[in-house]
Write a structure and sequence with these properties.
Oligomer: heterodimer
Number of strands of chain A: 0
Radius of gyration of chain B: 22 Å
Low-confidence stretches of chain B: none
Number of helices of chain A: 5
Shape of chain A: flat
Distance between the termini of chain A: 93 Å
Helix content of chain B: 25-40%
Distance between the termini of chain B: 69 Å
Mean pLDDT of chain B: 95
Radius of gyration of chain A: 25 Å
Order of helices and strands of chain A: HHHHH
Largest interface: A-B, 24 and 25 residues
Strand content of chain B: 15-25%
Chain lengths: 136, 176
């Protein structure tokens, strides 16, 4: 009987969500008045990774922390800070992982060189193939 | 075919790449983001009191000569409630603990402290996670060991479990 009662009560239980019930940060979802500043802020947001939903940019994420990051970026852009300085501030704290726009560093240079290397290999293969065809 | 080993190169390269990617997929995922601020000074900040009757928190409080445990938490965070008894034990051992309440309301926080105890000497209110981000923290609860000169010495991601208490006390005492 007691177990049945507990099970019945569990049907009404609601899971506790790990989210605050605070409103979003002031500039999380509010555009800046200056269109050029807003464009710069949006461009930066699209290349910053959300720390909660780690496959999304903060422009796409609904996580509260992503909203707080968007607000931080808009506040700083409105105060005249350059987008790359804000990116550097975030990378200083969370590592290069937080940026979707990889810088040219000793670790990432293969990423940048690979397409050119593959293009060079392709050209070399095509040239030898065409030469051989001409000789026939 | 056997006389032209170069022709095997693309296949070998593909197998190597596939092996590398398979290894990456099979490796267990680590979604913890460690702060790169460990070893650096606490960035300057000043937070208002998070609940009436208690002082707020500023970076100057963390560079006044005594090491601190800085606990980033919230009343809406379930693991933070589970962590409360461990923080109590650490505070009872004489370690000063200061809190940063992320996105929290004064009344909700007062209720949380009443229910789970209050090991904090100060609690600053971080309503838009600004100081949390400045410290390189990405969630609640997280705990930083800060030495007497205001340098961040250690980060703990997630709740402090009962088996971590002695180690945490030792870490703060070592951070003179």
């Amino acid at each position: 009987m007691r177990r049945a009662l507990i099970l019945a009560l569990l049907a009404f239980a609601t899971p506790v969500l790990a989210d605050s019930n605070m409103p979003a940060a002031p500039l999380a979802d509010v555009q800046l008045a200056d269109a050029r500043q807003e464009a710069a802020a949006t461009a930066l947001m699209e290349t910053i990774r959300c720390l909660v939903c780690q496959g999304q940019s903060i422009a796409d994420s609904n996580a509260e922390l992503a909203g707080d990051m968007r607000s931080l970026i808009r506040q700083r852009i409105a105060a005249g800070e350059r987008p790359e300085a804000i990116r550097a501030w975030l990378v200083r704290r969370y590592g290069a992982w937080v940026s979707y726009s990889p810088a040219l560093t000793p670790v990432t240079w293969p990423l940048w060189i690979a397409p050119l290397a593959f293009l060079a290999i392709g050209v070399a293969v095509a040239r030898t193939g065409l030469r051989r065809r001409r000789r026939r | 075919m056997s006389g032209r080993p170069i022709l095997w190169a693309p296949l070998v390269a593909f197998i190597l790449l596939a092996a590398f990617l398979t290894y990456g997929l099979a490796k267990p995922d680590d979604t913890n983001i460690t702060s790169k601020m460990v070893g650096a000074a606490v960035p300057p900040f000043r937070l208002p009191p998070a609940t009436p009757g208690m002082p707020g928190l500023a970076s100057a409080d963390l560079a006044a000569g005594k090491p601190h445990l800085v606990n980033i938490f919230a009343s809406w965070c379930v693991p933070c409630a589970a962590e409360a008894p461990q923080l109590r034990a650490i505070a009872d051992a004489g370690v000063p603990i200061v809190g940063i309440a992320v996105r929290d309301r004064p009344e909700a926080l007062a209720d949380f402290l009443h229910r789970y105890g209050n090991p904090y000497a100060r609690i600053g209110s971080d309503n838009a996670s600004q100081v949390q981000m400045a410290l390189g923290s990405s969630g609640v609860p997280e705990t930083f060991v800060v030495d007497g000169r205001g340098m961040i010495r250690r980060q703990t991601i997630g709740p402090i479990n009962p088996q971590d208490v002695a180690d945490t006390i030792a870490a703060v005492q070592a951070a003179r």
